[in-house]
Amino acid sequence: MAHAYTPGLRVSEFTLLEKVRRLPLLGEVTVEVGDKVTHEQVVARTRLPGDVQSMNIAHRLSIEASDLPRYMLKEQGDEIEKGEVIAESKSFFGLFKTTCDSPIRGTIETLSTVTGQALLREPPIPVEVTAYVDGVVSAVHEEEGATIQTWGAFIQGIFGVGGETSGKLRVVVDGPGVGLTGDNIPDRAEGEILVGGARVTMEAIDQARKAGARGIIAGGFDDEDLKTLLGHDLGVAITGHENLGITLVLTEGFGEISMAERTFELLSENEGLLACINGATQIRAGVIRPEIVIPKLDQEKPAASGGESLSLGLREGSRVRIIREPNFGSLGHVTGLPPELVAMECETKVRVLRVKLDSGEEYPLPRANVEMIET
After folding, report:
1. Lesser CB count within 10 Å: N end or C end of the chain?
2. pTM for this structure?
């Protein structure tokens, strides 16, 4: 049987996942292989060097650069406080003096008798990497981090903003086609991930932040509202580092678009459970999709099979989503994969597939117009 490879969007009820957690530079790993960890547990930590400020002490004291050590009250490597006098010169038998006060708290990193300058470094910045998901440490990367293995539900989105967060799932609409507005947002939602259906409004996001929600999962969003949320045009679609007070994951795309029924059902089935979400998105080489992970470590695991099976690509019966107009966002399944090239309206010859939509319609489409929903 013919098959083809095409971008895939995963929506899995129960699967094996591995999350590699790495520090931005070498540090200390705090876990060992086999350790059970929670999503908030620190698995590695390090300290980023603080910012450096330059201070021309020789110029301020009107001295020769080579004489700098004679006028220093602090030496290279000493700790200093903001406003502390670190150098001083006296004149007219000590009646007059000129001082240099430290503009920061930190340490004196270097003193130069060539330039007369001191480099002052601010205190190091502590960085901690958490497990992100409840699971078991399957590997330790010396001085770098660890790999966390977990079993659970896994859903990939189309677009998101905001970084990693977690909370209990709470469905606040009646169905996948119901939009998420301010009226749907509960008064109290501390530490929760709210699930909508179709388009989420800017009003709903504002209300959710006020109610204490950590994240929102919805089908669609308006691109003008995205500008309002970010405070600027997105430009190159690389997200995940925004400090918005909430993480947003879109499962379908932009505009008035309903969440896929299977996705909504899966989220509804897991209401009340912990969900770990990440809005990080990269739409270019090395694609990164936003994700929803619902750990289920207490659920019975399937028989060992050497890990997750390798996708065989697009086949007859595969679930797909249309990613270009017409019928953008519609779901269906593949009914045929003819091998011959077919001329399109623009006269370009391309490989096509036949798709039967959930609405019952069936017609051919270029294979580039769909993405596979991997389950």
Report:
1. N
2. 0.78
